[in-house]
Task: structure prediction
Amino acid sequence: MTAATTVTKILRPAALRASGVHVHSSKLPSELAKSASAYLSSASSSGNKAILPDLPYDYNALEPIISTETMTLHHTKHHNAYVTNLNVSLEKLDTAVSTGDVSSIISLQGALKFNGGGHLNHSLFWENLCPKGTIDFPSSGPLKEAIEARFGNVENMKKELSAMSVGVQGSGWGWLGYDVKTGHIEPATCPNQDPLHATTGLIPLLGIDVWEHAYYVDYRNVRPNYVNAIWDVIDWKKVEERLVAAVAK
Ligand SMILES: [Fe+2]
Result:
């Protein structure tokens, strides 16, 4: 699944389908409708529930940059918790929307943003990693051209995004995103589990999880060492695929 399809996939819970009610309904405040749609879109179209995706590699595949222990805990415990809690919130939202209970819909926004964002962010994150030394930065093509247009060269991009990611206060994410308005790649950060596209409009190409759960086992509290090391396990082919899909939107 590409970033674009992940972002745009729309889930319509059973009650919404049965009632014909859309979260874009003019009966709901526009920002509320927008955010509800965004969070619903992070869920899987398989049934009406979000599902924990399989990793595209083994848990030990990113050694020694990211340990088997970190990958196992991160995927089976942390990401799985976001999925579980998102599904609980989606069930409540389904009921609230179908009954027109705007107060309950509003009260669910925090949980939906956090758990929906957590599910979406991690689903993107796993796919933009690969075993060390298997996929090099491309020597030509659209990704190289876009990065050189914005940053001069890939090393400058790494430095800028690394510094921004290390500088995230508390927990959050560093991102490389595509701005459809300008046609440029841009670095960005998001706090907590705020999803990049839903909160900034940028289409995510590459994410760096800087929550401590992503690196504490391997790097303890030294976030800069983790961020500097993660460049060795980036799947540049996936990043370029996302860029091509974003440009085509
Ligand atoms: Fe994480």
Notes: The chain has a mean pLDDT of 87. Residues 68 and 145 are 35 Å apart (CA to CA).
